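forwarding from the other thread:

> can someone predict this with 4-(N,N-dimethylamino)cinnamoyl-COA?

sure thing
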Amino acid sequence: MEYILVEKLDTKVGLIRLNRPQAMNALNSGLMREVIETLTAFDQDPDVGCVVITGNEKVFAAGADIKEMAEASVVEIMNSEMIGIYDRLRNIQKPIIAAVAGVALGGGCELAMACDMIIAADNARFGQPEINLGIIPGAGGTQRLTRAVGKAIAMEMVLNNRWLSAEEAYQFGLVNRVYSTEVYLSEALRIAAEIAARAPIAIRMAKDAVNAAFELSLAEGIRLERRNFQVLFGTSDQKEGMNAFINKREAKWQGQ
Ligand code: DAK
């Protein structure tokens, strides 16, 4: 890998570190290709139950690579592989946690929001500064941000480049938790390890059902949730989980 560092921890956590520090981790197509290929491999790997994506202590990612796209034509942007990459990201079935320190701007903020949870360091800042470049967010920024923080704050961020501090992002519901810069990554890895130790198929169904709340009507979402719930009664993990509860012992998940 040229632009990311990849580790597989013995806690069943896959760790991806964005690693273009000289360019503030700008998300060029090579980096994004490496991210999605690694995520796809983790998604198929039974030894990975949860993934953490992080940058470094100073920057998560300063957005798409402006130098790479500055001269692009409308057709080139329409044909950009980035579109497919963000669609594939949406289809990853295992939980993904973004551990964000420093700036998460533009496509960087969108990448964090495309994850299932965001753990922030106290120096994290979130923004959609695309308006300064004569464009608008193009990878879900106007949609996921608005659903997370509401119209008032989203409009300020998208129209007028307001950045949120970690504390504001927490208050507005964009991030799950805020920790000091010293421990934000270890805390994200701890939470990821807890999730990775849970019943894998139930975790997959749970992620699917919560995400459906953003895409379906309430009636459709309830129907999808019910199906996912029912399917789990075909797994040995459901039998094991309930049996373990009744017999007052720890469950041993098989992912079956
Ligand atoms: N792209 C390319 N290079 C970048 C960059 C970026 N987004 N951000 C920073 N860099 C580079 C700088 O050019 C500089 O490189 P050198 O000049 O040293 O060669 C180096 O990183 C250090 O940056 P600065 O010197 O500017 O560092 P400062 O600490 O002064 O400022 C900053 C840090 C993050 C505040 C500043 O660099 C900045 O404002 N960066 C740009 C932030 C931004 O505008 N982000 C939005 C980008 S647009 C798509 C979907 C989505 C998108 C695109 C397509 N499709 C579906 C097709 C997303 C678009 C975006 O994200």
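The chain has a mean pLDDT of 97. thats all i got for now
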